Amino acid sequence: MAATTTPCCAPIAREPLSETDAADLAVMLKAVADPVRLRLLSMIGSHAGGEACVCDLTDAFDLTAPTISHHLKVLRTAGLIDGERRGTWVYYRIIPEAVNKLGALFAPLTESSPGRPGDLELLPV
User: Fold this and answer.
1) β-pair partners for 90
2) What is the pTM for the complete model shown?
């Protein structure tokens, strides 16, 4: 019986993560694993001008201001957003390098890596 070749899924990484990279990414993943924080991140990232005032974010949630502040602090501590105080308000913006690093973890490679075949050979049993 002949072997059949079936296309395999593209690899999502060029090489395994180092301990340091895995620890850094785990902090970011933990930060966005909360629905409120994920929504905050998307609201900041999609806001006109690339930054959002905390006053623009709080009305979208049925949460207290201290709770929203806590979630923003978690995102900031994880390195996903940065903020700048202007008068009484804080304006938040995405840190593109951090968000891109997180996104790259799940983006399949478009070109095949050396030593990683694009096809999986299935042998008859």
Assistant:
1) 85
2) 0.74
